[in-house]
Amino acid sequence: MSNILSDLIDEKEHKDFKDFIFVLGQMERKYLLRNDILLKFQEFFREKKKSHNFLTQSSMVHFLKQVPEMFISSDYLLILHRYAIGKYHFYRSGLAGDYIEKISTADYLKYKDRYVLGAATWRSKPPLKVDFMPFYDFSPSMRDSKNIGNGIRFLNKHLSSSLFQNPDKWGRKLFEFIKLHKINSNPLLINGDILRTPDEFLEELEKTLKWIREAAPEIPYTELEERLKKSGFEGGWGKDAARIRETMELVYDLFSEPDSDLLEKFISRLPMISKIAIISPHGWFGQENVLGKPDTGGQVIYILDQVRALEKFLTRNFQMAGVDIKPKIIVLTRQIPLAENTTCDQRSEKIFGTDDCWILRVPFKDKNMEIVKHWISRFHVWPYLDRFAYDSQRELLSEFQGKPDLIIGNYSDGNLVATLLSDQLDVIQCTIAHALEKTKYLLSDLYWEEMEKDYNFSIQFTADMITMNKSDFVIASTYQEIAGTETSIGQYESHQFFTLPGLYQAVSGVNLFTPKFNIVPPGVDENNYFPYYEREKRVTGKTEYWENRLFTDKSNDIYGWLKDPGKIPIFTMARFDKIKNITGLIEAFGQYPELREKCNLIFAAGTIRVEESGDREEQEQIRTAYRLFDKLDLHGHARWLPSINKADTGEVYRIFADRGGIFVQPALFEAFGLTILEAMLSGLPTFGPQFGGPSEIIEDRVSGFLMNTSKPGLIASVIRDFVQDCEKDKGHWKTIAEAGIDRVREKFTWNLYSRKLISLTKLYGFWRYSAAEEGMVKMDRYCDLLYHLLIKNRADAL
Q1: What torsion do the CA atoms of 414, 416, 419, 420 make, to the nearest 10 degrees?
Q2: Which of 205, 241, 275, 626 is most open to solvent, judged by the fewest CB atoms within 10 Å of its CB?
Q3: Is the dihedral of CA 28, 29, 30, 34 positive or negative?
Q4: Which residues, in sequence order, are bridge partners of residue 190?
Q5: How far from the centroid of its chain's Cα atoms is residue 754's Cα?
Q6: Is 427 helix (H, G, I), strand (E, B) or coil?
Q7: Nearest in space to 523 (alpha carbons), one of 243, 718, 231, 303
């Protein structure tokens, strides 16, 4: 292999590079991440009195900024070079630093295995290699990282180009796709017995357009129905003459001059989605008394709001199409017989604020086919999911009286069940990860065996990888969730290649450049979350109740009291787990007198009693919170409430806004941040972590504030600066609050979300029917093999 050192490092810096590599080789730690590398670089070359220009502008520092990790294995330094978002080179260097050569992905992973397992064990355990890339030969591929997350736009251009280049073939496919759609066995759009070929369809379409253009725009479909049906056109073109004409002109133009925008507009109008199954097995899925319980938080809120918005959008969609159909949506989750104070033991529960949307609960069963009665952590549900999917298929077919049109998976377990159901029912599948654990737990792939007892990461990471590849399309809330930033790796990106030493190497785990990834941020329930100054919408009794409970009530489920309830309130609420970092905020508040002097801390999380929690991580966080109250003497300065019911959270935010307070989301990492949207729309200046999705919601120092949440002092400094700025400028608080409201209303609404999700379903449905189905069969069979080999057998053994 050729030495590429000079391609990466300027020749005049070669000696410095060699010196630096030598120092790294002498370090006790042999595995270094990006921050470790850059800190050591600064420390070493400052001691050598290097210039500021060298420390900030040298070719060496530019290269090291693109290195997420390096490690020493078998007398070599192995370097991962992320030279662009989603794109990598792998290098091997001698410890003398005098040469660098490229190696393959498989070789790089082999060295990682050897680093973890040791030479003897490594030689005795030849790895299974997992490679999905050969199964993407049916799909177009993007080149530019900027297109990641906008897959449908790329795919539409590909499809319209194919339609233009091969009009007979693709015109026939489009005609057949339109013709096959039915709702409740009734044909839509085209009667195939009358219009049998694309030519017959276009000829009749041209005739129909002549007279429909002359009809009064407001004439309803019912008055035009008989004439349209005689020509072979069924319902679904529009509610009146104007809408029918628009839709027919779209498809006529699409056949005449194919264009990606025309394709999207036409396919998006087709009223082909009426039944949706949304899968979310883990946690406590209900509408009351569930938030704050283990594994139960933002995902439940997301799904319930999603359901209401989708039903509303689909209802309008059918009305505009002139079709008398009502949509039905079912959230499939787990039934928990020992339901505590929730409704999770009920088989079926209607979702508030909907016409025909339901929570359907199916129990887990053990190996003896006995129903599992107690709650189970999301990390330990794997032995039950295969049977759960089998039982759920029968229940869904019964409830829908047929197959759903779309299956949406949520989180790792829900996505796996969605994959199994989609495979059996041959239905379009959408994957929503919410949060992939692989990036949340440091080095959890390399040291999976040490964590397996508590987390079962080997099964979870494999399930994530399979569902990403089998799914028709994937939606994420932010670009970062998929592909990270210039300096951080995205959640999905982290699955491109990895190794579970001793089990398998994922040489190509997920293909970021396939056009299946799309960014669709969720919205906020505007009936519950609205600005604090819209007082006519607020309920006086509820406001008074929560003012008392938040600041003065001596209830036995609240811990802590406030010496001066009139101080600026700092508020947070979340699940009580390590990643949410509420104890980090407690430390930030307690360690800095300037915050305690001017502010109070109020937080709502889980329960104040260890014995009421069934989750080990939550129990540890509860104990830590008590220790911090005593250690930092927070009595008189902080209050701790149990989790707040979803229906009350909007008014709680507004009460804190009434008092000039702030909302702080101190998570170490946040995939998106629904509470951030809720607080902003309620008019509460909001602080969120710079790690993850919040950086795409909050415009720093414009519509809120981004913080480095890795250390309490860094959290405290951002809050302190804001409090001081508000003292200097009496309008500063209101300026930030108003900008936050405007930001949410402009970019994050459930109507925008619903329109895009349903449009994606229809467009990927056309792609699947017209081009991808045959290629996807090979992918499906490969995934089935991996499922039985790496998931089912291992889960059954737990």
Answers
A1: -110
A2: 626
A3: negative
A4: 233
A5: 15
A6: coil
A7: 303
Instruction: Tell me the fold of 535-748.
Output: Rossmann fold (3.40.50)
CB 590 within 8 A of CB 719: no
End-to-end CA distance of the chain: 45
**Is residue 680 within 8 Å of residue 691, measured between CB atoms?**
no
Whole-number average pLDDT of the chain: 93
pLDDT tens-digit map of 649-683: 999 999 999 999 999 999 998 878 889 999 999 99
Distance (Å, whole) CA 604 – CA 623: 15
Cβ(522)–Cβ(477) below 8 Å: yes
In the chain, what are the domain boundaries?
5-125, 149-269, 275-522+752-762, 535-748
- Ramachandran class of 428: left when φ > 0, alpha when ψ lies in -120 to 50, beta otherwise: beta
Encoding tokens for residue 657?
Answer: 């806004």
pLDDT in tens, 120-174: 777 777 789 999 999 998 889 999 998 999 999 998 888 888 877 888 888 888 8
Query: How many angstroms from the chain centroid is the CA of residue 362?
Result: 25
Residue type, 88: Y
| Residue 1 predicted with pLDDT over 70 | no
Q: Give strand pairing partners of 328.
A: 275
Is-contact 455 441, C-beta < 8 A? Answer: yes
Residue of 7, 57, 54, 17 whose CA lies nearest to 37 = 17
Total Cβ atoms within 10 A of residue 619: 19
Q: Crossing angle for the helix pair 750-767 and 260-269, nearest 10 degrees? A: 100
**What confidence category does residue 372 fall into, taking pLDDT thresholds of 50, 70 and 90?**
very high
> Biggest alpha carbon distance in the chain?
88
Is 597 exposed, middle or buried (CB count within 10 Å of its CB: 0-12, 13-18, 19+)?
exposed
**Single-letter amino acid code for the residue at 10:** D
Instruction: Tally the residues of the chain.
Output: 798
Instruction: Specify the amino acid at residue 371.
Output: I
CB 522 within 8 A of CB 509: no
Q: What is the CATH number of domain 5-125?
A: 3.10.450.330
Residue-by-residue DSSP string for 713-773: HHHHHHHHHHHHHHHH-TTHHHHHHHHHHHHHHHH--HHHHHHHHHHHHHHHHHHIIIIIH
Identity of residue 767? W
Residue 277: which residues within 8 A CB-CB, separation 6 or more? 329, 330, 332, 396, 400, 404, 406, 407, 408, 418, 421
Whether the Cβ atoms of residue 325 and residue 355 lie closer than 8 Å to each other: no
**Residues near 62 by beta carbon (within 8 Å), at least 6 away in sequence:** none
- Summarised one tens digit per residue, pLDDT across range 243-269 is 999 999 999 999 888 888 888 999 999
Rg (CA), the chain: 28
Among candidate residues 302, 294, 354, 363, the one with its CA nearest the CA of residue 332:
363
Q: Bridge partners of 79? A: 70, 91
**Residue 639: per-residue pLDDT:** 97
d(CA 602, CA 571): 5
Q: State the Cα–Cα distance between residues 565 and 562, nearest whole angstrom.
A: 5
CA dist list (Å): 551 to 234, 548, 567, 640: 62, 6, 11, 10
Q: Quick one: CATH architecture of 149-269?
A: Up-down Bundle (1.20)
Superfamily of structural domain 275-522+752-762: Glycogen Phosphorylase B; (3.40.50.2000)
CB atoms closer than 10 angstroms to residue 172: 15
Dihedral, 46, 50, 55, 56 alpha carbons, nearest 10: 140
Q: How far is CA 534 from CA 537, 550, 682, 685, 747, in A?
A: 6, 21, 10, 17, 21
Q: Is the pLDDT of residue 759 over 80?
A: yes
3 state DSSP class of 533? coil
* CB 456 within 8 Å of CB 382: yes
The reply to whether 535-748 shares the fold of 275-522+752-762 is yes
